[in-house]
């Protein structure tokens, strides 16, 4: 195990590891930033036609009973395409806790210092390196890695103490009768199937994939209703954000009431709110709950464990848009919430500049309607 760079090696124990996106032999893709919240093994095997690489894979697979989507996921990184029958077999063996990454240009292996020095890197739930095990002359690498994996604690105990996500819960932002009004508005008008932002070819577009997100959204366009909402946010939510997060928000994106419906399987898989080119202006996400008569559908921040977070009716949960989070499946009833993003003046300019990254057909930002202090 090594905690210092060598031969161009940039990975040091305790440091955040480089994020990447890669294709899998099973036809999917892996974005490392979404994988936080569990232990991760990157096994840089290179060319499986080499006997040492095949042996290392065999040794690793002998611990397959440890692989678990909620605790330990393993990605074997290949720099040489395996023969078709082998590739088919590896794709068939792939699952939520095991994948094979096609690094045929060697960029990923080079980034982790493994192109000329094969190794295994173990990453903690907050995406920091905790082991960097280089291949040796004998088979000590495999033995060391297997021993390391066997002693990994559960994710909730990964830090040695219980972790709490950097979340602010602010009660009494909306009055109960105003919550009821917004719920009734959604029930009367209905919402549209909600997508999420996805980058492809340097452009950001809204896509719909019910495996990742299922939600119905109602956009509020009425100026008087938007003014009521703006007033509550400015007077009741911005002061605690400034006090506890030391941030002065001046803009709010999305006057939107959303609904997670158990009849439709409402949920939102793990994601970050500001990684897409068209969303880098976002600073804080806000969820104001509008009802409580439902089950499930809680916020979870995987990098900090499995603890669930829920605001009271009329209250807000506020967190950084850079935090990995998910909305667990709703198991009974419907959950209604108001879900804006907060940001500032410099971020507004960034958002306008990022219009150039929006795919054709996406609404462009012009500024003005998002101001929280229009009199200024």
Give the CATH H-level superfamily of the largest domain.
q2cbj1_9rhob like domain
Q: How many structural domains?
A: 2
Radius of gyration: 23 Å
Total number of β-strand segments? 24
CATH architecture of the largest domain: Sandwich
- Average the pLDDT over all residues and give the rounded result: 93
Contiguous runs where pLDDT drops below 50 for at least 5 residues: 1-8
CATH topology of the largest domain: Jelly Rolls
Helix content: 10-25%
Task: Report the principal-axis shape.
Answer: elongated
SSE blueprint and pairings:
Blueprint: E1 21-23, E2 29-31, E3 39-46, H1 51-61, E4 72-78, H2 84-93, E5 98-102, H3 107-111, E6 119-123, E7 129-134, H4 140-150, E8 168-170, H5 176-189, E9 192-193, E10 196-200, E11 203-207, E12 213-214, E13 216-219, H6 223-245, E14 251-253, E15 256-261, E16 267-271, E17 284-289, E18 294-296, E19 299-300, E20 308-309, E21 316-320, E22 325-327, E23 330-338, E24 341-343, H7 345-353
Parallel strand pairs: 3-4, 4-5
Antiparallel strand pairs: 1-2, 3-6, 6-7, 8-21, 9-13, 10-11, 12-16, 13-15, 14-24, 15-23, 16-22, 17-21, 17-23, 17-24, 18-23, 19-20, 19-22
């Amino acid at each position: 195990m090594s905690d210092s760079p060598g031969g161009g090696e940039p990975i040091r124990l305790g440091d955040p590891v480089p994020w990447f996106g890669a294709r899998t032999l099973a036809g999917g893709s892996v974005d490392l930033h979404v994988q936080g919240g569990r232990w991760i093994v990157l096994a840089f095997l290179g060319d499986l036609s080499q006997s040492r690489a095949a042996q290392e894979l065999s040794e690793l697979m002998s611990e397959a009973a440890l692989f678990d989507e909620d605790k330990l996921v393993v990605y074997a990184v290949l720099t040489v395409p395996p023969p078709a029958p082998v590739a088919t077999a590896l794709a068939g063996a792939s699952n939520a806790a095991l994948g094979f990454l096609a690094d045929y240009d060697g960029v990923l292996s080079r980034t982790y210092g493994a192109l000329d020095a094969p190794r295994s890197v173990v990453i903690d739930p907050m995406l920091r390196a905790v082991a960097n095990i280089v291949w040796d002359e004998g088979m000590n690498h495999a033995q060391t890695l297997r021993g390391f994996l066997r002693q990994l604690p559960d994710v909730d105990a990964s830090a040695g103490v219980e972790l709490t996500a950097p979340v602010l819960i602010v009660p009494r932002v909306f009055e109960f009768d105003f919550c009821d009004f917004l719920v009734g508005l959604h029930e009367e008008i209905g919402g549209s199937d909600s997508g999420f932002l996805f980058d492809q070819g340097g452009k950001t577009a809204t896509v719909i994939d019910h495996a990742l997100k299922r939600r119905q959204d109602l956009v509020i366009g009425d100026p008087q209703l938007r003014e009521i909402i703006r007033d509550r946010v400015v007077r009741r939510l911005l002061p605690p954000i400034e006090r506890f997060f030391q941030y002065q928000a001046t803009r709010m994106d999305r006057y939107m009431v959303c609904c997670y419906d158990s009849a439709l399987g409402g949920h939102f898989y793990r994601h970050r709110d500001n990684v897409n080119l068209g969303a880098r202006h976002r600073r804080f996400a806000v969820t104001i709950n509008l009802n409580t008569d439902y089950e499930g559908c809680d916020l979870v921040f995987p990098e900090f464990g499995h603890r669930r977070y829920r605001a009271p009716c009329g209250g807000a949960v506020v967190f950084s848009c850079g935090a990995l989070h998910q909305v667990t499946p709703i198991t009974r009833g419907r959950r209604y919430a108001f879900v804006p993003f907060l940001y500032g003046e410099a971020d507004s300019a960034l958002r306008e500049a990022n219009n150039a990254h929006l795919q054709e057909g996406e609404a462009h930002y012009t500024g003005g309607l998002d101001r929280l202090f229009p009199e200024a």
